[in-house]
Specification:
This protein has 408 residues and is α/β, with parallel strands linked by helices. The protein has three domains: 1-107 and 297-326, Rossmann fold; 108-288, Rossmann fold; 327-408, Alpha-Beta Plaits (2-Layer Sandwich). The protein contains 13 helices and 16 strands. The strands form three sheets. It has a seven-stranded parallel sheet, sandwiched between helices. A five-stranded parallel sheet has the order 2-1-3-4-5. Strand 6 (152-156), helix 7 (162-171) and strand 7 (175-179) form a beta-alpha-beta unit.
């Protein structure tokens, strides 16, 4: 086991929102103490607990704001055990030398499977039939039901999930079109369309798989819904801010759309058991699910391992590969040396000042790697052991220094 300069038993790791046991096991087996809480914490509650936390793990309900980060004086890294990181003020975290890691790939299959399942359920009006049956209504009819074979699926966002949705849909005999703001390599027989407006009138089902950004906020409103084919259906398993729900409800009520499946909402309850209301409730052939697109046992186990491994690599080797707000730096371990991690403001002349410090000490640098990311620079240096503490002290005196850590 690699020896670190800070005893493992003193490292405090806080995992919130019922993060999978796979993460707890991985971190505990390395000798770290882990506190696991099943629910999210409010900003006030988290601010009270965060001062002596070194690694924080959250999912989608915990907000890590600037106010929280200002209290996080010991925090080294944040793990978002999910795809998104919009619940964290990642720019503030970067300025405070805190990398933020997530799991952009681990639940893609789960989301893709639910998407395709819901396409079939919408085509057959199966969920609506089920609701009628629960209400004691027997209505055996083929009216409004169809196969998905031969139908055309439009995918908005062809990143991690979109291609998997397309391949699964093709296996059912569907034709797949997609639109993405970046040029992407089509998988299978999928065809790229130059514009969203050009794709909307062509598809029988429209599935959204985009991140939450200023460009995707209210991306699908009355205009876009009006461009869709009469009797088509919409699925949103991406972010709640992407679709204007008032406009979607109107398009369903006037029968322009034949159905919808929505897994994400602009405002979602913070905990299970809290009340939920939506304009889409009670509408026929509308599938509503509580943000469970990626919530499978397999996905949560994989996410737990992936993010925990990223946090461990940063904690024990300084590797920031996979951080969403940090330069990506990684160096293999070198025997008989000490590793110095220096995070500084990305200003002209900083590296020359750092090198001057090294030159003054007369230390031999075994290896060195610097990378920058917008406002910050991140430097890993392996130096001879006898001078590592002196180097750390002198680097901390540089005016652009944010945080310097002696790793081992």
């Amino acid at each position: 086991m690699l020896q670190t300069s800070y005893p493992r038993e003193k490292v405090r790791i806080l995992l919130l929102e019922g993060i999978h046991e796979s993460a707890v096991t991985l971190l505990s087996e390395k000798g770290y103490g882990v506190e696991r809480i099943a629910s999210a914490l409010t900003e006030e509650e988290l601010s009270e607990k965060i001062s002596d936390v070194h690694l924080l793990g959250i999912r989608s309900k915990t907000e890590v704001s600037q106010a929280v980060l200002e209290r996080a004086v010991s925090l080294l890294g944040i793990g978002c055990f999910c795809i998104g990181t919009n619940q964290v003020d990642i720019e503030c975290a970067a300025r405070r030398a805190v990398p933020v890691f997530n799991a952009p790939f681990s639940n893609t299959r789960s989301v893709a499977e639910l998407t395709v399942a819901e396409i079939v359920m919408l085509a057959r009006r199966a969920c609506w039939r089920s609701q009628q049956m629960h209400a004691g209504v027997w209505e055996k009819s083929a009216g409004g039901s169809s196969e998905v074979r031969g139908k055309r699926l439009g995918i908005v966002g062809y990143g991690h999930i979109g291609p998997q949705v397309g391949l699964l849909a093709e296996s059912l005999g569907m034709e797949v079109l997609f639109f993405d703001i970046s040029k992407k390599l089509p998988l299978g027989n999928a065809r790229a369309i130059d514009s969203l407006e050009g794709m909307l009138p062509q598809v029988d089902f429209l599935s959204l798989h985009v991140p939450e950004t200023p460009d995707t906020k209210n991306m699908i409103g009355a205009k876009e819904l009006g461009l869709m084919k009469q009797g088509s259906a919409l699925l949103n398993l991406s972010r709640g801010s992407v679709v204007v729900l008032d406009d979607l409800a109107a398009a369903l009520k006037n029968n322009h759309l034949s159905g919808a499946a929505v897994d994400v909402f602009p405002s979602e309850p913070a905990a299970n058991g809290e009340g939920f209301k939506s304009l889409l409730q009670g509408l026929p052939n509308v599938i509503l699910t509580p943000h469970v697109g990626g919530s499978t046992v397999e996905a949560q186990e994989s996410i737990g391992r992936e993010v925990a491994e990223s946090l461990l690599r940063f904690l024990e080797t300084g590797s920031s590969v996979g951080a969403v707000n940090f330069p990506h730096v990684d160096l293999p371990y070198v025997e008989d040396s000490h590793r110095v991690l220096n995070i500084h403001r990305n200003e002209p002349g900083v590296l020359s000042r750092i090198n001057a410090v090294i030159a003054d000490t007369g230390a031999n640098i075994t290896r060195q790697y610097l990378a920058t990311h917008t406002e910050i620079g991140y430097l890993i240096m392996d130096v001879e052991r006898e001078l590592s503490y002196e180097i750390k002290k002198k680097l901390e005196e540089i005016d652009a220094n944010i945080k310097t850590r002696l790793l081992f």
